[in-house]
Design brief:
The structure is a single chain. Among the domains are: 31 residues; 42 residues; 94 residues, Trypsin-like serine proteases (Thrombin, subunit H); 100 residues, PDZ domain (Pdz3 Domain). The protein has eleven helices and 23 strands. The strands form four sheets. A six-stranded antiparallel beta barrel has the order 9-10-11-14-13-12. Strands 2-3-4-7-6-5 form a six-stranded antiparallel barrel. Strands 16, 17, 18, 19, 20 and 21 form a six-stranded antiparallel beta sheet that branches. The protein is extended.
Length: 483
């Protein structure tokens, strides 16, 4: 038994030894050839995926169809918006140079000093024994003579009817220069429905050039508008755009392209005539636009008072009070019975002790700024709040005529240069200044960034001496559109 076990063990050892050389031989063969395994992998051939011709053809067809589809959409879109693009390009790149802005000015402006001087000269002539004969029309009548004349004048209902019919015909003629501006905005209500909201303001056609007409209006109802629609007195409606805003008064200029007007309207643009608001107390006026709060309303009255506003620098705005009771949101314009604009109804009607009376900005003081806004020129800012020198101050206290400085704005060019309260500006650059209105007009002849030399008279040791100050003009107001 033991011999058999030994024999089996020997067989197993023999078999183990037979196996060992093969493993060692294989290991040696692999170690003898470095990189042989990696080489065998590198030499493997990678077969490319066969091309699916059907799928390639389908993708090519889909790409071609999408290109055709988007090409058609682009062509239709360009075809639809081409008219609007043409108008926009024509508006921003006019084919001809823009002419100077033109507006109708009555040309009969008189300063307060001239008005007072004329009145004093006439009074002196009447009292002088050696005065030349005064025309009968200028000789004052006694109360008895006035009563006698009016006692012979008896008016009946036909006379009153004729008077009001004549006034209605007059207002129809003046209304040709009045437009209604609708400020349109879109709003979404709580259930997701989009609706358009429209606010209205009255506008006045004040100027034109060879490209646009310019409309003066109160900006307050137009704030936030997404589009502006301008309706003319003839019923024609077109698009308008906000061009400029005056920071002091809040008045705006709306521009309308002449190319957008009908041929009849473009050939006969009804420009308003700007008159003079000096010495206008007692002048009969009619208020057109929206004095009662609704477009197209009319009111008659007279100018009952005048007051200077001193809240804004470098302006000479005079406020005209009427005896017309208007709406709290009154707007529009005051015309005299010569067809001339005297004032622009101010949006804030709480300027006096009597509530509800209509106030207006005097047109004389606004003319230079209207011209600047229409031409796209920024209003020049120096920072002087001033007033007129009265004849009494000139005669009794020796104050020279010029623009009297009441105060200067903080950190304004005037304050930084050294101009102070009590100075009288007598020259701005090379332009002589005889009153505050001259100063406001002369200021507009300068450009932003110009060095402005101001000659002022300052009281020193009971006499006035001339000093010169140099200021750098800044921009005031807000220009919306650049031409």
């Amino acid at each position: 038994m033991e011999d058999r076990d030994n024999k089996d063990q020997k067989n197993k050892n023999r078999m183990r030894k037979a196996d060992e050389p093969a493993e060692k031989k294989q290991d040696v063969s692999l170690s003898d050839k470095p990189g042989a395994f990696q080489e065998s992998i590198i030499k493997e051939q990678i077969k490319r995926r066969p091309i699916n011709k059907y799928r390639l053809l389908r993708r090519t067809a889909v790409t071609a169809l999408l290109a055709i589809f988007f090409g058609v959409i682009a062509s239709v879109t360009i075809w639809l918006i081409e008219p609007f693009l043409s108008k926009w390009i024509a508006r921003n790149e006019p084919s001809q140079p823009r002419d100077a802005v033109h507006f109708i000015d009555s040309g009969d402006e008189m300063t307060p000093q001239e008005v007072l001087s004329d009145y004093m000269d006439l009074e002196a002539d009447l009292e002088s024994e050696n005065a030349e004969p005064v025309p009968a029309a200028q000789i004052p009548l006694t109360d008895e003579q006035v009563d006698a004349l009016f006692s012979k004048l008896v008016l009946d209902q036909r006379d009153y009817r004729q008077i009001y019919m004549a006034m209605a015909a007059y207002t129809r003629e003046m209304n040709k220069s009045i437009v209604t501006i609708s400020a349109i905005t879109s709003d979404v209500d709580w259930i997701g429905v989009t609706e358009q909201v429209s606010k209205q303001a009255s506008g006045l056609i004040v100027a034109e050039d060879n490209v646009d007409i310019y409309i003066l209006a109160d900006r307050a109802p137009l704030v936030g508008a997404q589009s502006l629609k301008v309706r003319f007195n003839s019923g024609y409606v077109t698009e308008g755009r906000l061009k400029a805003v005056d920071a002091a008064t809040g008045l705006a200029i709306i521009a309308v392209s002449i190319s957008d007007l009908s041929s009849e309207l473009a050939a006969n643009i009804p420009l308003a005539t700007l008159g003079s608001s000096f010495a206008s107390i007692g002048t009969p006026v009619c208020a057109l636009g929206s004095p009662m709060g609704s477009s197209g309303s009319i009111a008659y009255g007279m100018i009952s008072a005048s007051r200077s506003t001193l809240e804004y620098a470098d302006t000479a705005d005079a406020m005209l009070q009427t005896d017309i009771v208007g709406a709290s949101n009154a707007g529009g314009f005051l015309f005299n019975f010569n067809g001339q604009v005297l004032g622009v109804i101010a949006p804030d009607q709480s300027k006096g002790d009597v509530n509800g009376l209509i106030w207006a900005y005097g047109i004389s003081e606004l003319k230079s700024r209207i011209s600047a806004m229409c031409s796209g020129t920024p209003t020049i800012y120096i920072g002087i709040i001033g007033t007129y020198v009265t004849p009494e101050a000139n005669e009794e206290y020796g104050v020279p005529y010029g623009a009297y400085v009441l105060r200067t704005d903080m950190d304004s060019p005037a304050m930084l240069a050294g101009i102070r309260t009590g100075d009288v500006i007598v020259r701005l650059g090379d332009i002589p200044i005889s009153n505050y209105a001259d100063y406001v007009s002369a200021l507009q002849t300068f450009d932003v960034g110009d060095k402005v030399t101001a000659a002022v008279m300052r009281k020193s040791q009971q006499q006035y001496v001339e000093l010169e100050y140099i200021m750098t003009a800044r921009a005031s107001g807000q220009i919306i559109e650049d031409d």
